[in-house]
Amino acid sequence: MALWDTLSRFLTGGTTPLADLEKVQQTLVEADFGVAATNDLVMRLSTEKRPDQVTQAALERLVIEQLGPPSPGAPLARAERPPTVILLFGVNGSGKTTTVAKLAQRLQTDGRSVLLAAADTFRAGATEQLKIWADRLGTAFVGAHPRGDPAAVAFDAVDAAATRGIDTVIVDTAGRLHTDERLREELKKIVRVTGKRQPGAPHESLLVLDATIGQNAVRQAEVFAAAVPLTGLIITKLDGTAKGGSVVALRRAVDVPIRFLGTGESPDDLEPFDPVRFARRLVSE
Ligand SMILES: Nc1nc2c(ncn2[C@@H]2O[C@H](COP(=O)(O)OP(=O)(O)O)[C@@H](O)[C@H]2O)c(=O)[nH]1
Ligand SMILES: [Mg+2]
């Protein structure tokens, strides 16, 4: 991403600091930081002792500050008594189903048994796609008939896990349109029914966002956050973008921690979010 490659031209050894900060602003907007984060960063840069001589390390520090308190590798919440229930939300194509598989593999590596629930009953092929992952990873699976009730799938999945002594249920949901009122009601219902079957559920409600779509992802984050209580964000497709600034914009849009980054299409391509590491990559690498 190497933001520094561009910014250093305007920062270190610049001639007229004010004009240079305008170029900095433009660079940050182009890198998908969004207007709010950009203005905040430029404001902070301008209050540095020598804004024209800001160092790479200082810029990294400012980015880290924007990402909130560092909690690298904070574990996902767990139920006191299994099953733990993890819900994944997000619009179609954001990478939800792939991320379900990635999380499942991660939990299995930690020795936890997993059940995948296909509560995306809207999109043709969604259930089948998740079933393929379940077979490949060797997890338990609960699906439904196409156009069935997603909340019923979620309930059945939690019920099955409780009965069979499975540690964690990961629920893949539909996300056809983040402005769709019916979808919102559907998601709320999924949250409700899992809590009825298992006290304290859902233990995590994670919103999956595509880093490559910039400000659209910010709007999605705001709409989902207004619909259901979120506990974290997973930002995907960071392998396919030079616009890592969207991670900063998304963290500002919703006041929940970023938990993981998706960096590819295979189950291994999920890394716990570490603000320090991310800022270094964004600014310097
Ligand atoms: N490059 C890349 N592709 C991803 C990532 N996560 C998901 N994808 C791809 O994005 C597409 C949509 O993913 P999918 O999981 O079906 O999204 P869903 O509709 O939200 O369930 C698929 O082609 C995935 O392989 C990622 O982190 N990096
Ligand atoms: Mg899907």
Describe it.
- The structure is a single chain.
- The protein has 285 residues and is α/β, with parallel strands linked by helices.
- The protein folds into two domains: 3-66, no CATH class; 84-273, 3-Layer(aba) Sandwich (Rossmann fold), CATH 3.40.50.300.
- 48% of the residues lie in helices and 14% in strands.
- It is built from eleven helices and eight strands.
- The chain has an eight-stranded mixed sheet with strand order 3-2-4-1-5-6-7-8, sandwiched between helices.
- Helix 5 (96-109) runs parallel beside helix 6.
- The longest helix has 17 residues, at 181-197.
- It is elongated and about 65 Å long.
- The model has no long low-confidence stretch (mean pLDDT 89).
- The chain binds guanosine-5'-diphosphate and magnesium ion.
- Residues 96-97, 120, 126, 172 line the site of magnesium ion.
Each distinct ligand: guanosine-5'-diphosphate, magnesium ion
Number of helices: 11
- Written as H for each helix and E for each strand, in order along the chain, the element string is HHHHEHEHEHEHEHEHEEH
Largest sheet composition: 8 strands, mixed
What percent of residues adopt helix (DSSP H or I)? 40-55%
CATH architecture of the largest domain: 3-Layer(aba) Sandwich
- Rough shape? elongated
The CATH homologous superfamily of the largest domain is named P-loop containing nucleotide triphosphate hydrolases
State which percent range the strand residues make up: 5-15%
**Rg:** 20 Å
Q: Would you tell me which CATH topology of the largest domain applies?
A: Rossmann fold
Q: How far is it from the N-terminal to the C-terminal residue, by CA?
A: 6 Å
**Average pLDDT over all residues:** 89
Number of strands: 8
Q: Catalogue the unreliable spans.
A: none
